[in-house]
Amino acid sequence: MPTLCLSMIVKNESKILSRLLDSVVDHIDAYCICDTGSTDGTVELIQTYFEKYPHLQDKGKILEEPFQDFSYNRNVALQGCVGLSDYVLLLDADMILEWKALDKDSLTKGDAFTILQGGPGFKYRNTRIVRNSGLFNYRGATHEYIDCPPGTITVALTEEDIFVSDVGDGGSKGNKVERDIRLLKTSIEKEPNNERHYFYLANTYFDSGSLEQAEEMYRKRIAMGGWFQEIWYSWFRIGHLAMKQEKPDKALASWLEAYEIDPRRVENLYEMVKYYRVAGKKKLGTFFYEKAKDIVASLSEQDKSEFLFLHNDIYTHKLAYEWTILAYYQGVRDIQKEWVRVLKHGSEYSLMGSLISNMNFYDFTIPIQYKVENNMSVIHQGIRFQSSSPCLLKNEKEEGYQMNIRFVNYAYDKSTGFFLPHPESIVTLNALSSLHSDLSPSSMKFLPLTISDPPRLYHGVEDVRIFQFPSGDLHFMGTGYHQNNKLGVVTGKYPEDLDSPRELYQNFNPSDCEKNWVFVHPKNEENPLIVYRWHPIELCHYPENKLENEIFVARTIPTPSLFSMLRGSSNGFHYENQMWFMVHFVQYTRPRKYFHMLLVFDENMTQIQHVSSPFTFEKIIVEYCLSLVVEKDRLLLSYSTWDDSSKIAVVDKSSLPLHDWTLI
User: Fold this and answer.
1) Where on the phi/psi map is residue 118: left (φ > 0), alpha (ψ -120 to 50), or beta?
2) In which band, very low, low, confident or very high, does the pLDDT at 395 lie, cut at 50, 70 and 90?
3) Which of 222, 244, 298, 220 is nearest to 266 (CA)?
4) pLDDT for 629-662, tens place per residue?
5) pLDDT band for position 620 (cuts 50, 70, 90)
6) What's the DSSP call for residue 365?
7) Does the pLDDT of residue 172 top 70, yes or no?
8) Residue 445 confidence (pLDDT)
């Protein structure tokens, strides 16, 4: 197997260097690091760090060489690697190496290897592995690049194999702009025909807000010809400069010039779409959106990996977001796929807030075959109760269903979302109902409820979710008023423990209110787990011992950052080889608006397979769903509206707005 030596230069990187070293230490066989004048203990940190790894003993160098320019010092480190390995890995301290599926043996197929680096929204290729022959060297005082010897075989590694995450928090950023301008001007004096120097000087001026100097350098770079990606990016940036100067016509013309240079890229078209949309010119916005959408559909990941400074977030979801607004003005009411694209790939909460707000202009109601309603009012212990959120459970050994129905002693003012009138205590009474296979009721009994004297702010268990354990016993989780006078999660056997539930708590996430925990039993787990939250998904051990109250994280599942807005609605329902959940999120208007989504995982809860677009049941503002039952051709979804109704929606599976997660 070929060996690999880490090569880098450092200065005052002690705060972050261990992060990079942790990501590479299992993959390198040697190291050569050039320190350019650290005063914060960086050198000592390197020495101490590598002492912990026997496979690197006597296989590393720490060189100390004062900084002259980036190529000079990187070449010192690179030449110091000669004789230590077969190949050299070229990194910086403010990076994280994500070694995924790369087989080291595959390095023998090439001499130089480019790797994508950046983040989810912005990435580009850079040479990060070279053969340790002593024939490769850096060029350029800053924004330096690897100069390869004649006959070099260059291989582009895929993001699925390896990726360099660019964090960008290095220790030598304080005078970066002034330093880079000085170094680049010096480089232009030495090499006046090197177009790369002009390009990076233009970028430096752009980043520092020197608009006129930036445009001058970009135009000089364009006039010099050469690599079309730099020319495309120069026109793209000139467009941004014009927008900063409030010259939209000039910006639009520049972005069209960029299209002429490379019609495969859509960042420029996206900017035109956004401009026309904001300016109220929806037809022009739609025209350029359609063009950009078709281009994106035609591109492979390999195509995009060839672009210089790829703004990947535009390709993954920002263009789709524009359509969620423009579509309305074109009479289109289906933006479900675009909505899920933003959810999967986006990380901007402002974008999601806008997207949720704009849902009011579209119809997201789910097609319902028919509804079964179990609405009733009762007087119990002298208190008037109204039926509310139900939780449905399918009987395992006989036909029919069981359903817990919550009854509440309050009502909403439907114009404000406030209680009307506000009761002294919020009281929940629960009832157990048996249903026939056609969902008609066969019996119902109210479950015990003790109201303390003096009364507390909350009584009874709210939002009861029933779950069958492997033993056949039924357990529940719901929301109750803990002894510390805070709302939290309570549990027990159903229904016998409902009037004296056990409190559950966690100590890994500071929170004054806990609710919406749900059960799930992955097939590869011996016992059921608790889904605590959805970003990342945290699966926690359920303490079956009645003397235990604390939950601990058993494992996590990575999810997109916008999953943090999701809350649990239903327990996980195991159907065939899948695990189904209903979740919800809230638009914080007055009154609040609730939206629901379906998530479908593999039965072991390792990866998402399908996600629905959001939906409502009845265009009602306050809707709450506590359970789903998955059957061969249909879903049974139990829910309430305004906390004063108990309903079951029967939904044909073929009408579900489900999207294949891998294709979004």
Assistant:
1) left
2) very high
3) 298
4) 999 999 999 999 999 999 999 999 999 999 999 9
5) confident
6) B
7) no
8) 97
Q: Is the peptide bond before 495 cis (omega within 30 degrees of 0)?
A: yes
Please name the residue that has the structure tokens 């919020």.
Answer: 426
Q: What is the DSSP letter of 271?
A: H
Whole-angstrom distance, CA of residue 274 vs CA of residue 285: 7
Give the amino acid at 88.
V
- Decide if pLDDT at 297 tops 70: yes
CB-based contacts of 288: which residues, under 8 Å, 6+ apart?
A: 269, 272, 273, 276
Q: Is the peptide bond before 454 cis (omega within 30 degrees of 0)?
A: yes
Q: What is the pTM of this model?
A: 0.89
d(CA 299, CA 296): 5
Which of these, 630, 631, 625, lies nearest to 648 by C-alpha position? Answer: 625
- pLDDT per residue as tens digits for the range 43-91: 999 999 999 999 999 999 999 999 999 999 999 999 999 999 999 999 9
Other CB atoms within a 10 A radius of the CB of residue 300 amount to 8
Given a contact cutoff of 8 angstroms between Cβ atoms, the answer to whether 400 and 435 are in contact is yes
DSSP string computed for 133-159: SS--EEESSSS-EEEPPTT--EEE--T
Q: ∠ CA 494-498-503 to the nearest 5 degrees?
A: 105
Other C-beta atoms lying within 10 Å of the C-beta of residue 118 = 19
Q: What confidence score (pLDDT) does residue 321 get?
A: 97
Which SS3 state, helix, strand or coil, does residue 92 take?
coil
d(CA 664, CA 660): 7
Question: Could you give the CA distance from residue 98 to residue 117 in angstroms, rounded to a whole number?
Answer: 10
Report all structural domains of the chain as residue ranges with CATH numbers, in order of start: 4-166 (3.90.550.10), 176-361 (1.25.40.10), 370-663 (2.115.10.20)
E strand or H helix at 43, and its extent? helix 42-51
Cα Rg, the chain, nearest whole Å: 30
Which range has the top average pLDDT, 173-182, 454-463, 487-496?
487-496
Q: What gap in Å lies between CA 428 and CA 270, rounded to an integer?
A: 52
Which residue in 38, 34, 32 sits closest to 65, CA to CA? 34
Q: Is 397 helix (H, G, I), strand (E, B) or coil?
A: coil
Cα gap 493→463, rounded to integer Å: 15
Greatest Cα-to-Cα distance within the chain, rounded to the nearest angstrom: 93
List the Cα angle 362/368/371 in 5-degree steps: 130
* Residue 433: predicted pLDDT: 98
Q: Which contacts qualify for 126-131: CB closer than 8 Å, 24 or more apart?
A: 126/164, 127/90, 127/154, 128/89, 128/90, 128/91, 128/164, 129/4, 129/87, 129/88, 129/89, 129/90, 129/157, 130/87, 130/88, 130/90, 131/86, 131/87, 131/88
